[in-house]
Amino acid sequence: MKKKSTSQSAPARRSLGEGGFFNLRVLIASVFCLASVFIALVGAGLYLGSSKAQAQPGPGSAAPAANSANGPDVVQLVGPVRSDQHLKDLPYIPPGPQILKPLRKPYEKRGASRSQTPGLAQFESLINGMLQPAPTMPSPLLTFNGISLIGGAGIPPDTNGDVGPNHYVQSVNSAFRVFDKSGKPLTPAITFNSFFAPLGKSTPCGAGENLGDPIVFYDQLADRWVITDFANPQDFIGRDMPPFFECIGVSQTPDPTGAYFRYALQTDPADPELFGDYPKFGLWQDAYYLTTNLFRGRSFEGVRVYALDRARMIVGGPTNAVGFTILSSNRNRTGLGHATTLIPATFRTGDPPPAGQPEFLLAVNADDDRILSGVKGWLFHVDFVTPANSTLGVGATHDPNALITVSPFLNAPGERVPQRGTVQQLDTVGDRMMTPVVYQNRNGTESLWADKTVFLTYNGPTGIRWYQFDVTGGTFPDTPVQQQDWSNGNDGLWRWMPSIAVDANGNAAIGYSVSSQDQSIFPGIRYAGRRPTDPLNDLSQGEAIMTVGRGSQTSDDRWGDYTMTTIDPSDGLSFWHTNEYYRAENENWFTRVGKFQFGPMSTLGNISARAFVQTGDNVMIGGFMVQGTEPKRVIIRAIGPELSAPPFNIPNALANPTLELHDGTGALIASNNTWLHTIIGGIITSNQVGEIQASGHAPGDPRESAIIADLPAGNYTAIVSGVNNTTGVALVEVYGLSPETDSILGNISARSFVQTGDNVMIGGFMVQGTVPERVIIRAIGPELSAPPFNIPNALANPTLELHDGMGALIASNNTWLHTIIGGIITSNQVGEIQASGHAPGDPRESAIIADLPAGNYTAIVRGVNNTTGVALVEVYNLQ
Question: 309, 332 in Cβ contact below 8 A?
Fold first, then answer.
């Protein structure tokens, strides 16, 4: 999109950091003189005359074919032009003057009156009652200044960038710059006019007519960089003139400061008056995918979708693109409907898409002032050898392959975002899905992550609608896996301009802009996120501040028009976000680049409890929680006879334990009496003996019990009793069998009748991970005798010991209101226990908070003065 220049006249200089723009008055006078000549050349078709850089078809890239009305079109790219000059050696060519053009919004109703609808009223009610999360989102590890208006012309900057193994490359509308990963600039700001000049005068790309909407991305599959913007001539009053081109550079080596292959692609050679606005790219195994919105003057005509032959471009080969046009409803065609701005999926972490998997594209209808409830999905299959085999969507009009039903939302287009200290409001660009759409294939589960700006209520503020869609097998779902309108607990701030990324561990984060007039907040940069083990439909880690804005934009309403969040390919875990802000009032825009990372997450695992099993209410009960978005495969065991043999030699072992598994509602979902005989029923549908043997956790005695289950997130209870009401010491255990999934075991407990000597209650658990895990361990007794439990014979005064894997006592407690200093406990814990939300309800009960490194731990519960009774031992993860 066209941008407004705020530059002053200055002589041409060698560095954008020193300024460097044409004198606008001189330029206009010159254009007046040359206008008739220029128009004559365009009309005669000489502007697009043959070029030495013109590509020729080569192996694997079919020759251009006659284009059909419905595609696919085969378009030959101009190039490649190979230039071995490094960026720092390119001759400086300043950016041309850029004149403000309104953001092109195909279906916006400017000045339209809004009417409250029942659907919107219901939608608003969903916001009420949201609780503001406790922020645990990590602070930035690094931030540094990117390109400023001094080095990049126009408003808005269209801030974009990506990170590679050793570099960060950032772009704004007229220039890009390479930094090392500490933020040190390695090049000046390189204008796109300079960068694409080697293409020559045959296209606007090489003729110094680059105008913006840049996209920069790192191709981690090839270890190459791709740098793009669009170009076209303008007349003396800033009107766009054909021909319209996308300019593309692909690095020859992994070094983004080095040499590049350069290409140029016409938006639609069959209809050269079509302008390709708001170009967006997606990285896929078989192609670079490019989408643009098509305009003829101010009339929206549809979208153009191209597949670029990636394999040939990364080696600098001549190539063609395969393209389709989906006409808009303005052209009385049904393929697009009221959708606009198709965003192609791109990927960075996880496994690559399966071989032959089509590209995914997402879009939403761009209607203003209507409640919407759908996301449209397209599949693009490209065949560069036989382009006629390529397909996009369904049928001749390229209808979407799917309409995914989502929670109702209201687009947020228009100049609505308030700022501190000014009446100037900012454009939300809320009529479209934002870039990127992130594809991730983790352990065979394929997902798309996407986001956009929405109105939270009829009069604002705006918030971030984000989605996760399960597209395993190349199929769009009927509904999302999860979705949310992020408002940080409905705190009243305006959030917009989002971009999403997902790291190798499944942690998701969104970077965005934030502003408020009521709360006196200048536009700034923040981000929020979630771990895969967090509850669905929530950015549970809360919000962090990347950059505090110090000024408002008073010159124009344009902000954005997009931001970028990406993942560092060198570790798969570091998030990098770039966005714009103002350093001070009455200044021009600046940009900022920031890096952050979710900390390592340790988990509880492989839990157990040992106690004397009695009858009735005094059987042994083990409780545990599965947390995460995927089912967790576990094996639950009830052990008795083995305990009487070496090395345990425990007297009075339960001779024949039986096992029941109940879900969070109390329903029996599985049971077992002997692991060598599977009881089919509930969630158990086939014989498990072979699976139990293969798990490595088969019990050592045939009278013992075991169940393997794939458990979704929720609470579960394992009950151990003796066959025919026999009693004795038994062990209940839960082992995780699917470490590759996102889900974990957490918040464990065991309830039993505590006796004396060897028959006290013992709870065992494991901490897994690379950093210490903060937990609270509790011994509960008196509470059990009161409502709602009403358990008879509750242990009146439980005492608690915590032992490490060597058996050493590392902490103990008798009453949580009195901390016993010693071992790993070095200070009073009463305040921490109260703040944890897990303080026991009776002063006689015990609690310990501990930061435990990876290892095995045992919690022992006894009665003070050898008293006996029913007690509960619990371990809660405080992270």
Answer: no
